[in-house]
Design brief:
Structural class of chain A: alpha+beta
Oligomer: homodimer
Strand order of the largest sheet of chain A: 9-11-8-12-10-13-14
Largest interface: A-B, 77 and 77 residues
Shape of chain A: globular
Mean pLDDT of chain A: 90
CATH architecture of the largest domain in chain A: Alpha-Beta Complex
Amino acid sequence: MEKILLGHGSGGRMMHELVSGRFAPAFEIKGVADAAVLELAVDGAPPRIALSTDSYVVSPLFFPGGNIGDLAVNGTVNDLAMVGARPLYLTAGFIIEEGFSMAELDLIIKSMAGAARAAGVRIVAGDTKVVDRGKGDGVFINTAGVGVVPPGVDMSTGRISPGDRIIVSGSIGRHGVAVMGERNGLSFEPPVLSDSAPLNTITRTILERPEAVKVMRDPTRGGLATTLKEFAVESGLCMLIEEESVPVEPGVAGACDLLGLDPLYVANEGTLLVVVASDVSDYLVEKMREHPAAAGATVIGKVEKGPEGSVVLSTSIGGSRLVDYLQGDQLPRIC
Amino acid sequence: MEKILLGHGSGGRMMHELVSGRFAPAFEIKGVADAAVLELAVDGAPPRIALSTDSYVVSPLFFPGGNIGDLAVNGTVNDLAMVGARPLYLTAGFIIEEGFSMAELDLIIKSMAGAARAAGVRIVAGDTKVVDRGKGDGVFINTAGVGVVPPGVDMSTGRISPGDRIIVSGSIGRHGVAVMGERNGLSFEPPVLSDSAPLNTITRTILERPEAVKVMRDPTRGGLATTLKEFAVESGLCMLIEEESVPVEPGVAGACDLLGLDPLYVANEGTLLVVVASDVSDYLVEKMREHPAAAGATVIGKVEKGPEGSVVLSTSIGGSRLVDYLQGDQLPRIC
C-alpha cells in the first residue's frame, strides 16, 4: 500500500508528483504555484474582502456524515459567510504524518473538492508538509478563505437591540455527537450524522434583508451556549432563550444523556444563529426553510435589556437558568 | 510554569483568554473574529489579489537567526512577493501540542509580530487548535496571505527568453545550514545565521522595471538547484550557471562539507532568484544591493536555447554538470 514518506514534504520530485498528480487535478488547478493571482469581481463599489483561516485536527478523521476534508472546506466557507461575505477562494495547507495512507488521503482530497464545488468556491493555493511518525496524527488541514463583502452588509453584535429575535437554522449538536460517537465506537438509534455543510447560500438568502440582520454566527467549538454568551457580552444585552424551542433531534438527545454532554455546548458545523429585527423574523424563517440545510429553522428566543451580558434559559414550567461560556475541554479535537 | 492545555483549543473561556490576552495584542487586532473584513486599496484599475499559504513545521523551533514565528511570516510574505504582489494581510493558524511552554509561545508570537511590522503586513485573522501530547511537535503554524498585484505585473516562466540573465540576491544555503546545525548540536566558524527575511521591498525595487522582469522565485525547500530546474522545465530552455559565481559564504561551505550537503539543494528563506532581460541586469543588481538583505546580489548565469529543460553548471576549468530536482528528503522539516 502506497504511503506518505518524508520526501513528500521536501520540495523535490516526490512532492511535485504528489501535488501535480493528486491535489491539482482534484481541485482543478492548472498551474501549481505558491501564490495565486486572482481577479475580484467588483460592481463599481470599493471592494471589501473577507479573509479567514481555520486549522482542522478532528479525531477521528472520518465520522458519520463527513470527514476532515469537507469539514475543512465548510468550516472556512462558513466563517466567511457569517460576516456577510460571499466566499470565493480557499487555500489548503496539509500537515501529514509519515506513513499516512495514500488511499485515505485520496478520500479526503475528493471530499474537499466536492465540498468546494457544493459551496461554489475554488481552492487556489496550497502547501504540503510531512512530519515524522509520532509527531503528528494522520493529517491536519488548514484552510484560509477570501470572500467579497457586498455593499450595505455590516454584521456586528453592536447592532443587536432589545426586541430582536434569535433564529437557529436547525437541530443542534449533531457534529459533536457524530464525532464523539465514532471516537468511542458507539452507534446511536436513530443514527446521528454530522451537520457539516456550507451555509453561504442560506446567508445569501438571509442577507436579502441586510438592514434587518444584526449578526450571524455558526456555533462550532463551544456550541450554541458559547455563541449566545458572546452575543450577550458583546452587545451588553440579555439573550432570553425558550429551552423547549431549541431543536435537538432524538438521536442527539439520547447520545448526550449517554455521554454526559449538554447539547447546548456541543459543536455544530453546518448550523447558524442569526439575530434579526422582530418584524422580519417569521418571513426569514420561512425563506431559510427553503434550503435543505435549514429546513428546521426556528425562532428560539429574543433579546431583552437585562440582565446585561447574560444568557437566560427559560423552561415551560416557569424555571430559568443562566448559561455561561464553555469551560475547559468538554470535547477536544472536534474540528 | 504556565503550559498549553487541551482546553486552550476548545473554543471556550480558556481559548478566549489565550487569543484576547496573547495573540490579539501582539498582532494589534482590535476585534477578534473568525474572518476579517478588509478594504483593498485600488487605483482605479480592476483589483487583482494574490493569495498564498504555507504551513511551518520546522524542527527545532528556534535556530540561529530566527524561529518558526518570523519564518511563518517571511515565508508567506515572500510567496506573495514572488508573483509580483504587494503583501497586505496574513492569517495565522496554530496547532499546538498539549504541554507546550507558554513562554516559548510568547517568544514565537513576538517574533511573528516583529516580522509582520518589518514586512509592512498585518495579521488579521487566526485560529488555535491544541492536540494531545505526542500527537504534534511543539507548535505548527500555518499562514495564508493576501496581496494586491499592480497593473502590468505578470511573472511567468513562459516569458523567459534565451539571453536573459539570472540573478541571485545573496549567499545561498544559510537557512538550511542554520537549522541543521541547531538540530545536530553543531556550531560553525564563522557562525551561520538563517537568511529568514521579507523580500517584498526588494521585489518592489525590481518591479520598477516590470517589462524586463520575467520571473522571480525564492528557492526554499529544494534549494537553488530545484528552482533553476523548475525554470528550465517550465520554459523549455536551458539555465547555464557559472559555478564560481554562485555566492556561498565560508561558514555554509564548511558546514556543507561537514554534513555532506550540496549548498545548491539547501533551503533559503530570504533569498530570491530573478530572471531579467540582459540589458537591465547590471542596473538591477546595483539597485538590489541598496537593500541590506540583497547586498550580495549578483548575476550567476544566463538563459540559453538548449539543452531544453536543463540546468547546466559550468566550472572555470571548462567542466560542466547537469543539475536535477532535489531527490527525496535531504533535509526534512526545514521550514
